Amino acid sequence: MTISIWRYVHLVLAIVSSLFLLAAAGTGVVLAWDIVQEKTQPFKAAEFEQIKLSESLPALRRKYPELLQLTIDHNQFVTAEGFDADGNDFKSIIHPVSGEVLGQPAPKSDFIQWNLALHRSLFIHETGRFIVGVVSFLLMLIVVSGTVLIIQRQQGIRHFFDKMTRDFFAQYYHVVAGRLLLIPIFILAATGTYLFLVRFEIIQPVVKKESAPRLHLEAAKIELEKFPIFQQTLLSEVVKIEFPLDDDPSEYFKLQLKDREISVQQHTGELVEEYRYPLAQTLDQWSLDLHTGRTSAVWAIVLGIASLNILFFIYSGFLISYRRLGVKTRNKFKAEEAEFILLTGSENGSTLRFAQQIHQQLLANGIKSYQTELNRYQLFPKAKQLVVFSSTFGLGDAPTNARLFEKKLAAIPQQQPIQYSVVGFGSHTYKEFCGYAVKLDEQLSQQVWAKRAVALHTVNDKSTEDFVHWVKNWSQLNQLALVTSPAMYGGKPPGLKTLRVKEKTEVSETDRNFLVQLEAGSRIAFRSGDLLAIYPAGDERERLYSIAKIGKRMQLVVKLHEQGLGSQYLYNLKTGDNISARIIQNPSFHFPGKAPKIAMIANGTGIAPFLGMMEENKEKRELHLYAGFRYQNNNAKSYEDFAALQQAKGRLQAAQFAFSRAAVSSYVMDLIQKDAAFFAELFNSKGVVLICGSLAMQQDVEAVLDQICREYCSHPLSWYKTNGQLLTDCY
């Protein structure tokens, strides 16, 4: 829910400010380029930063006796104004010591002036300046909300700059560019906001007058070279100098520095008066420098790139939103007026695609259809048909967006008879095939108001052929013209990446497990515990495997089944072959870096993610491994050797292995029972247990752990599971 709120805020802010940001960013690119162009002109004196006023002013006074004013701009070009020896007025860019004329100050071109006016005020004067200021503030909020979204996407600020899963072009580079240019864009927005606040006197700098030294009228005249203030002041600290008009003692040198304004007696060099700028006014200048990049060509280039990327963010952001809206449910009718209700339960969103196809066809047939997730079940006063599309998670459990349904179903009985149908999605690979759909069908059958329309229908491996069988039966029952072609309900799996096989081991008579190492491109982000989805038949049938990240490679541990679609495909691969697959992030089974103690429990191929988690434990948290296998063969020996290596590196505290077909057989549950005191202390100290492997093993291990918790802990295992101290990824 939090992610949705931040995404909504981010989108609304972008929509509200997009047109103004488009103008500001476009003109910002032009103005940044103009700053860079200015920096290339050869008007800056060598070693400008080391020149003192005691060196510059006497030399210029001798060359130009009637010099009126010196101005030093942000490029450190020195412009002199006054009269030459012939009495003609002049205004030239000069060398600050020799007085040599280097060039003439040129006004901005009409094109730059046009961009500047548009950038500052949108051509509508003070009203425009106010709008631009507000948009700068909105850009700050956009940066903040975007940062929160990236942090949530990356599962924490520690992984902010980790590699990411490569989505479609706009999505991927929207995040990548956002991470790289976060600080420059925030500085642009913050300084623009500050200048707006100063401009409209929301922040009001107060000039403080400081007392000046008392003048000594009898003091002797001294040369300009010996004025203490001129000897202490660098030309680089000066913005403008006004020269005395004549020899009258009441005429002073007036110096505007970057932090103050001072008046200096022209004969004695004494300080007459001084105005020090308050912090707010100094911040005003700093903000202007940072916002425009006028003091540094490098920073101006950075700001130009940032402005260019704001244009890209506008484009990519709206493209992302358009595509997201394209896959969202669009309900033409409200829940209170709909006659056909479609409820979905989906962990990864694949089930939703089937439901959407039915929903859209019902609307096209003029039927009042309403689609939502199972968690949003409510009273449907005009409903005649209820259709549930749901996948299964874990051991026959509900998907994330269906976990509230059972309680709501019991609390909210419908007020009229409704026919219902349940369509379950799953894979025969798993023991609990469509287990949650079976549970839903049974619960609905017990409701007084519910009458089964068609029998529970199951879909294996997202088979469009299986789904079409249900479509035919259900549409005939309701006398509806729905499409019964499998192609209507198919779809290309999203985000497929190309992976190269780098190494693969062989199976043996005593061990049907084999290792596959894959090389993932540098732009493919993954962690141990994530899932690799492959499509061995080139259709919608999907197989998932737990990932171990070993170095920069992806490693799978796979059991070869005689009729296994996925395992046979992987086993027949050769070194150098390429496969198409996608990464499914699985943050609920990542290495729990903050836990004081961690125990990893696996059997068979379930050891795969734990191999990578050992390497990931660079902070050397207390980590224990409990692994069970059938035979003590070469593969098991390689795991033992790997664990020993990790122990030597300090990344693994202890490793214990059990072999059910050894001379002295034992199971992983025996190891846990032997260390009952350790597991009790682990749960009591907020440690975490991870389980990966078969569902049968998970059930047996949880039974042992529950017994330990009831004997030695203050809560049953279910409490620690709810508290996030028991994480499972079993199949």
How would you sum up this structure, described in words?
This protein has 731 residues and is of the alpha/beta class. The chain has five domains: 2-40 and 110-204 and 294-323, no CATH class; 47-96 and 207-277, no CATH class; 331-489, 3-Layer(aba) Sandwich (Rossmann fold), CATH 3.40.50.360; 497-587, Elongation Factor Tu (Ef-tu), domain 3, CATH 2.40.30.10; 591-730, Rossmann fold (3-Layer(aba) Sandwich). Helices cover 39% and strands 21% of the residues. Strands 4-3-2-1-6-7-8-9-5 form a nine-stranded antiparallel beta sheet, with no helix packed on it. Strand 3 and strand 4 form a beta hairpin. Helix 1 runs antiparallel to helix 3, helix 1 packs antiparallel against helix 9 and helix 5 runs antiparallel to helix 9.
